[in-house]
């Protein structure tokens, strides 16, 4: 029994080493990928409530890895945050989205901002610098923030948000409803938009309660004069429900998956010449 215990320990020990080695590998590879411009941005269109018109785009980062294929951000953003890589990564994403955004006149481009990136000193300046260097119209940039940005120093977050709004940049509160104090944030901070978290739609069919919550969120958002967007729309039933509620914008696989920018060009071309 004793040796079995020892074996088990070394088993876990080696598993730990394995995990650490993996993280280190990801970190080194990611650092290189950012430096050597190997990341790519996909874009997922946001649609009008009737589902016929593209009204905006969300940039979503992808990492084409030579051995492991297209890696999803859910697998590397956390590591990037831990290792301080999310600052250069975030700036790369912002710059590329502003560059690409010039291809699509009149459309707003949304960029996800990690709380760590947002709280980093000099974030507002980096946004100003990128806007200046790319010549992208500030009012066509939308930053998607989560409640995490105000953890810690809420006053600093508020100041940064006021500065960004003064530049003309729009602010969206992402994953709305997943935190526990979203309502307080809506009252205090100057958002233009809320994005209802996908988890509400996922459970909507299963429980009537989720539908009631979505209903309340849409009405609350509209009453506050915010643009209300639902993400993760996958079924016609969800679409009908959200449209009937008065949701302004819809995003999800029902309409389009995130796609490379050339595919967006094509979709917009089709839209212009039906
Ligand atoms: P998010 O900001 O909530 O983005 C929405 C995620 O839901 C995306 O996953 C998108 O592909 C996925 N999605 C969209 N429609 C549907 C649908 O109908 N059904 C389902 N099941 N999923 C849908 P993705 O691209 O893997 O991104 C995951 C998360 O990674 C994002 O969640 C965001 O938090 C983060 N992320 C992505 N790109 C960036 C980035 O450039 N910077 C930062 N800081 N975070 C990013
Ligand atoms: Ca988002
Ligand atoms: Ca979201
Ligand atoms: Ca999410």
TrEMBL record:
Segments forming domain EAL: 23-272
Signal sequence annotation: none
Organism superkingdom: Bacteria
Protein's UniProt name: EAL domain-containing protein
Species for this entry: Enterovirga aerilata
Part of the full-length chain shown: 437 to 710 of 718
